[in-house]
Amino acid sequence: MVLSATQVAAFERDGFLVVPDAVDHSAxxxxxxxxxxxxxxxDPSTVSIFSTxxxxxxxxxxxxxxxxxxSCFFEADAFAPDGTLRQDKSLSINKIxxxxxxxxxxxxxxxxxxxxxxxxxxxxxxxxxLLQSMYIFKPPHIGGExxxxxxxxxxxxxxxxVVGFWVALQDATLENGCLWAEPGGHLxxxxxxxxxxxNGGTRFEELDPTxxxxxxxxxxxxxxxxxxxxxxxxxxxxxxxxxxxxxxSRHTFTIHVIDGTxxxxxxxxxxxxxxxxxxxx
Length: 281
Hints:
Elements: H1 5-14, E1 16-19, H2 25-41, H3 61-64, E2 70-74, E3 93-98, H4 100-103, H5 105-111, H6 114-122, E4 128-136, E5 146-149, E6 163-168, E7 179-181, E8 192-196, E9 202-206, E10 221-223, E11 230-234, E12 239-241, E13 252-259
Antiparallel strand pairs: 1-11, 2-3, 3-4, 4-13, 5-12, 6-11, 6-13, 7-10, 7-12, 8-9
């Protein structure tokens, strides 16, 4: 998947690029099956809720320790008031993160397939390193909204090199919570950073007061994506996805890549032990 000059120019202009039919459906199906196996083996007594409200993530040790692990996170609406799951565990998980690409052979193959590696090279990455992977379930009826944000808030390099390679494993539509993005929004400022606090825990460091676009507002465009579509997302691009109240899930996979030539500051929340150094393609 060597991108054309036109595609590269569109990515540089818009901050995102939609590439239909980039990934074989058979590879998507294999990843879906493997994610199901991971969830089946997950002990639901480990309750960590991945909330789309950013402030609730700052004190979750399970989340902060997931940079070099395979960890499952529940949807905010997965539990009844008495603490029991409202529906089957397989329909209650928000995501798996954040090191499957280095710890699981199926995710390794998917993350390092030529279509992603060649796209990274096409946009000028000199020494691409695979930093973080996320399998997003967006389950029917309870799949939560992801508030408008910039990926570089959470994964920061100097200079800015973060790019997300987002793959639709199932059709992503308006009804089941597809991505929305602000064309050209990556040319604006980074609003804030999610960093480790010297006094313990984490905090948000406010950088710029520029407001994000309103969810579903005129500044955002929907990125409906058929199964097998790959979407490139610049780290500074404001993007959002709605809740899923439909009857169909919206499984997606994202691998975040940084350029090894850039500095990855020590105050970033996501760190890996010496046993698992960052690798490229």
